[in-house]
Amino acid sequence: MPRLILSMDGLVLKEMVLEKERTTIGRKPHNDIQIDNLAISGDHAAIVTILNDAFLEDMNSTNGTYVNGQPIKKHVLQTNDVIELGKYRLKYIADGGAPAAGEQDEAVSFAQAASQTDAAAPPEPQAASSAPPAAGIGMIQILSGAHAGRTLELSKSLTTLGKPGSQVAVITRRPHGYFITHVEGTVFPVVNGRPLDAQAHRLNDHDIIEIAGVKMEFFSQAMAQ
């Protein structure tokens, strides 16, 4: 299970396991990781952990969030990345280390329907390791936008959907079904007309998902036959 090692001025303060899907960091007591220092914003940053992937997001903090010395708004964490919050350091350690090249899960970007042409096609999916067994293979059919009619097979353990920098969600394939989780953006994805919250939401056949201005339908491969 991924973990963080908190230190300051080279002194290790504690080690924390990322057991929750969303871990918040900040000065206020309600945060999962509270750092009581004026350089840290009340709600400073958050880490969304999906299977073996972790996404770090700065929550519009006053002094910013840095990873390996570079300011970030959104960052996919790799093992041994160092998150810098003022004088504090959080070293990220992933289970089994970082994935080798070519082992990242599938990522598909859909542009907003109102501003896209056929020339702005999604990137080709990257190779990915096999996902754990689930009850049937999930499918996504695009209902609006430039890619309306396109069908995606959710055979990977994790598929990223949305528009980077605007709104991003991930669909994870688990042994007991498919789940969608908000990852990036101030506006949360909508399922069947209702906005999601920060927790993972299990998808059912014929659920209508709306993200980054594009509507799509989730269904199982068995029902498509």
Write the layout of secondary structure elements.
Elements: E1 3-8, E2 11-17, E3 22-26, E4 33-34, E5 45-50, E6 53-58, E7 65-67, E8 70-72, E9 74-76, E10 82-85, E11 88-93, E12 138-142, E13 151-154, E14 158-163, E15 167-174, E16 177-184, E17 190-191, E18 194-195, E19 201-202, E20 207-211, E21 214-220, H1 221-224
Parallel strand pairs: 3-4
Antiparallel strand pairs: 1-2, 1-11, 3-5, 5-6, 6-9, 7-8, 7-10, 10-11, 12-13, 12-21, 14-15, 15-16, 16-19, 17-18, 17-20, 20-21
Kindly describe this structure.
By secondary structure, this protein is mainly beta. Helices cover 2% and strands 44% of the residues. It has one helix at 221-224, and strands at residues 3-8, 11-17, 22-26, 33-34, 45-50, 53-58, 65-67, 70-72, 74-76, 82-85, 88-93, 138-142, 151-154, 158-163, 167-174, 177-184, 190-191, 194-195, 201-202, 207-211, 214-220. The longest helix has 4 residues, at 221-224. It starts with a strand and ends with a helix.
Question: Which descriptors apply to this entry?
Answer:
six-stranded antiparallel sheet; single chain; 1 helix; elongated
Work out the strand percent. 35-45%
Strand arrangement, major sheet: 2-1-11-10-7-8
Average pLDDT figure:
78
The poorly predicted ranges are 97-107, 110-134
In short:
Helix content is about 0%, strand content about 45%. The chain has one helix spanning about 220-225; strands spanning about 5-10, 10-15, 20-25, 35, 45-50, 55-60, 65, 70, 75, 80-85, 90-95, 140, 150-155, 160-165, 165-175, 175-185, 190, 195, 200, 205-210, 215-220.
